[in-house]
Amino acid sequence: MPESLVTVVIPTLSADARLAECVASLKRQIRQDFEVLVIDNSGAGRAARTLHAAGFDGFAKVLLNPRNVGFGAAINQGMAVSVSPYLATLNDDAAAHPEWLDEMLRALERRPDAGMCAPQIRLFGEDRIDSAGMLVARDGSSKQRGQGRPPDAFPVAEEILFPSGCAALYRRTMLRQLGGFDEAFFLYCEDTDLGLRARWAGWKCLYAPRAVVEHHYSHSAGAASALKAYYVERNRLFVAMKNFPGWMLAAALPAAVARYFWHIWFLLGGCGSAARFRAGGQAGPKLLWCVLRAHLALLGNGGRLWRQRREIRARARITPAVFRRLLRAHSIGLRRIAAL
Predict the structure, then answer these.
(1) Model confidence, pTM
(2) Which domain holds residue 53?
């Protein structure tokens, strides 16, 4: 591979016209000292055909997996076959504005203590934010900061908790230190886990509001599918088990019960994520089964998660008290989680 400052890794499953749109946006970046790796999880060679039809053969390299290995594993593959000092993640249903990479690189190059940078992610074609970084609730749930608000509500470059994996820039030194993404997450919340592990290790995260990406929200798994409901619930349990200090972990259970209450409340009112799940043709018992499966998966993975928890604490550069203050400063309410 040619030398580059950044490797942009794009995992894809559908590998449809959205992928071509995503790669086209990278062609328009104001700086070109980067390479593009498309990790094809379709198992059918769709990405190569889509990019060939769009005329991007020489611009993006495609790595084909025989099956869907998940988001985190795909990013780790990109990291393993590249040497650039920075690694950018980009969803295949996102399109970057021309200054995207330049603005994020400027931010990280000024701050060697920062290992992550978050752009301003907007809902595609709308004057509303999808993500200006991420927030974490008391039960381990994570949600986009500023979702649904106008872009000018978050205009300031500042330190935040961690970026959404939809579009982010990471320092390779940090990723190597942490061992990359946890591939067991498969889909959803792997960025939360990585971000919290990075904060335990003492790394900072910056927000670059002039680095803009537009995102077709939940293009691959659907906005309120059973697949998404299961992995989001299972993986927030994984996040809490691995990363929450003792009393926060104990408090996560009653916090989750409170969030379930608010889901039911908003479901009865016909709004929130639970209502969208039902509106998508999913019955209430199926949602309950997703929650039960998630907790069973926690039991089945308990030993591995506990070992990882001990490893995180053994390498920690901050105290549990500092970590708790950090999460309080970047928290989201349980009612708000259920309402979005």
Answers:
(1) 0.95
(2) 1-92
DSSP run (H or E) holding 266: helix 246-268
* Rg from Cα positions in the chain: 19
Q: Among residues 69, 92, 115, which one ends one of the domains?
A: 92
List strand residue ranges (DSSP E) for 13-98, in order: 34-40, 60-64, 86-90, 94-96
Question: Are the beta carbons of 88 and 102 closer than 8 angstroms?
Answer: no
Distance between CA atoms of 4 and 14, rounded to whole angstroms? 28
Q: CATH no. for residue 27?
A: 3.90.550.10
Looking at the 3D structure of the chain, how many domains does it have?
Answer: 2
CA pair distance 328, 313, nearest whole angstrom: 19
Q: Is residue 297 domain-resident?
A: yes
Q: What is the pLDDT of residues 127-136, one digit of tens each?
A: 999 999 999 9
Single-letter residue type at 274: A
pLDDT in tens, 283-298: 568 888 999 999 999 9
Indicate whether 32 belongs to any domain.
Answer: yes
Burial of residue 279 (CB within 10 Å: 0-12, 13-18, 19+) is: exposed
> Alpha-carbon distance 265 to 76, whole Å?
40
Q: Is position 314 within any domain?
A: yes
Structure-token match 């088990």, residue found: 241
* Strand pairing category for 60-64 and 34-40: parallel
Helix and strand totals (H; E) in the chain: 13, 12
Q: Find where tokens 């989201």 sit.
A: 332
155 burial class (0-12, 13-18, 19+ CB within 10 angstroms)? exposed
Residue 177: inside a domain? no
